[in-house]
Amino acid sequence: MQTQKNDNTLGLYIHIPFCKSKCYYCDFFSFAGREDIIYPYFQALKNEIESYKGILGNYKIGTVYIGGGTPSVVDANCIRELINNCRKHFNIEPGAEISIEANPGTLSFDKLATYLDTGINRLSIGMQAWQDRLLESIGRIHRSGEFIENFELARKAGFTNINVDLIFGLPGQTFDDWTETVDNVAELKPSHISCYSLKIEEGTVFGDMLGEGRLKPVEDELDRQMYHFAIDRLAGHGFRHYEISNFSKPGFECKHNLVYWEGRQYIGLGAGAHSYFNGKRYNNTYDLNNYINCAAKNQFHRENIEEIDINGQISEYIILGLRLIRGVDVDKFKMKFETDVFDLFGKQIDRLISRGLIEFNERTLRLTKLGLDLANQVFIEFL
Amino acid sequence: MASERQKKTRNFCIIAHIDHGKSTLADRLIEKTGVLTEREMAEQVLDNMDIERERGITIKAQAVRMIYNANDGKEYIFNLIDTPGHVDFNYEVSRSLAACEGAILVVDASQGIEAQTLANVYLALEHDLEIVPVINKIDLPGAQPEHVKKEIEDVIGLDASDAPLISAKNSINIEEVLESIVKKIPNPEGDEDAPLRALIFDSYYDNYKGVIVHVRVKEGSVKPGDVIRMMNTRKEFLVTEVGYFRPGALAPCDKLYAGDVGYIAASIKNVKDTRVGDTITLADNPAAEPLPGYRKVNPMVFCGIYPADGAKYEDLRDALEKLQLNDASLVFEPETSAALGFGFRCGFLGLLHMDVIQERLEREYDLDLVTTAPSVVYRITKTDGEVKYVDNPTNMPPVNVIDKMEEPMVKATIMTPTDYVGNIMELSQERRGIFKDMTYIDEKRVILTYELPLNEIIYDFFDALKSRTKGYASLDYEFIGYKESDLVKLDILINGEIVDALSFIVHREKAYPRARKIAEKLKETIPRQQFEIPIQACIGGKIIARETVKAYRKDVLAKCYGGDITRKKKLLEKQKEGKKRMRQIGTVEVPQEAFMSVLKLDV
Fold it and tell me: Has the ipTM of the complex gone over 0.90?
């Protein structure tokens, strides 16, 4: 089956693994204090873009996402050149969504103007929490004042599509801290808000602290209380809950992230970036020096190449599709995979419905309110 | 009168407390007599099971023949029969001892005599063996050879004045041991022309030759072509091969004579036909009387063993049957549990034996097992006078038809530095022990004797003893009989349903603390599920402990973007795998560890 047959649009992800400092919860592939290799890294990106030249000729790029790390820490001219290179070698659609991630305290009016000038039209700001004591306790370098300044600056520069990232369930965060955060951010009227439940990962400062018993994770009960508060309160502010952790004003859903959740193809550039292309998922090397050195010789090593067979595609389609609040349309499923989802998972679906985790309405499977809290229990049934 | 051949033969074993260097000494003897080249010597030749090497214990008796050129210019044949060092395997020890005339007693120069040393010495004395003490590890700091010699003389009553002072590990004074074997251990005797009487001390199944029967020929001789008869089972077989043991290999020879240790192969298909302790004679010239056998060993500890995957039931049966071929002390019969499905009730000599069998099943047969907590065998007299032995708590008759319940008791010998006497007394008291005796070995060490219920020992007694004595105390125990006791059956309910595999029998006074501990433990082991799960412990319908596993509130991955999909999918797959491995009890998923968790409670 050629599920990707008519899909000649790609998402493009570009990874910028540099940060001013590493936050305590962060398990992303990023480094602080490696400013020395920023320029060689962008040279490597340039080479990687060129390496795709012949391969992506027939594809259109519908979305570009410059993520990190903190892409806003590097010189805006690097970003300009990066986008120019992309335009030179790829078919970036007119009106494509082009996002960049930024942290408060790293933005200036000129930088923002340069971004807009290159065609970047979406800004994602990592605010995480409103209270300075919490920001400090999670290793953020900014304070809420800087966030407000940068947010206003972005507006002034001309950004109309701004996302704000928030985290709840932080150690020491009270319910009131969270309501204050949500309300204050909503009042700034960004077009998009992401609310992530904190996950303490191994290999992070928090992970170590947890292991040493120096960190007390919040109770699940409080975490869920915060989550459902956000859903309700943001709805009141006109935000639509469209993915487990994502909210937007109508029409401002992140198109790039929808590529992932809808099981469409994407190309990742840069060290540690992942791609899903021609039925295969793979990633670039996580070794920064290796990435730079090989790129200089026009060598790009793909790791963990995984062919996603039809069963894998179906699993991912359902699992990722159920992350979306709109759910999985069983008729669309049938059109795409030429098979009935109930023939494949009838028993599982019945059981999940009886457990109150999913519902089936208007030919669509969706997570229930309880299902949003226990989504993994749903997902494992479709593996 | 001994034959020339017998005069030059020495049959002996090595006895020691665990870790005192028995297997290392065996290796040195083998090396020094040149049976193997150094290249062929893997460390500890005689412990050839992985588990034996890893744990530093000997489980199966092994035999090996060596040729030694003694200082008197003569060539001697040494038959060394290695013996297990652990209390659980006493039966193996006594089998091996019956094939020997002497025993080398290895004592660690810094540790001195331990409980197991004494137990083994008494066994050897019962078999009239000549005991040759050897002091090992003399090169270690803390070695007190003179003190240990005195200990051997005072506690055991053996003359240790000229005991070789050796280091098996570093090959110091091994020649002295070899000479002592020649000089001190008596040669075998027995009329080579009398009707054959050969004692079976072990056997194992070989795919090509059939059962390899390990024998000590006491009288007469045997050769290929003879028809042998098992005096007990009356079965007859045509001998195809006889020979002796090289390390890890068989060396065929023409004939075995009185005084020899060797093997007989006779195309025997079933190990059960060659009962250890039976006497082999010749069909056409049978001996009048069999040799004295061994007392039959009865399993003391039982537990349920179930395949984690129900489809592996037949594989588990095959594996148990194969293990039983070489370990007649393992018994098993099919049983069914509502919670665990189809499995086997298995009987073992003790906890270590149980551990070893479980580990071998998992490792050598690649089986994933769920085991229930071990139980001893209770003797129950019903009101109608019927006496029942119950090795599975589920089979306990209703309380109203029970007239009397008895539990197995053991005599426990604990050797310890005096510093820990208080701790041990406290532990023994907690475990319902009755103090019997305390003897000073010297001013620093004592032997404590307690009468203890076996069911207290199988609940983590070893570990508790070790932790309360910083590992210095050693323990040996023997079954002494049954004793009436106030016992109750404790049932565990998960979400309102009795889980048969978790029931156990316990002394009434211990029921409350243990019930609480078990409920707590289960609460830790059972993961949160979508609903609240009550865990209750009850005696005859009366709930005596309760815990609740709270419902989970959150099980969701907050982030899933392009770079996360592969990793998150793996996490979900792992989660699904974990769920699959759980046992469904009603609507509750119970992890397999839960069934074993009741083991480690220390109450």
Answer: yes
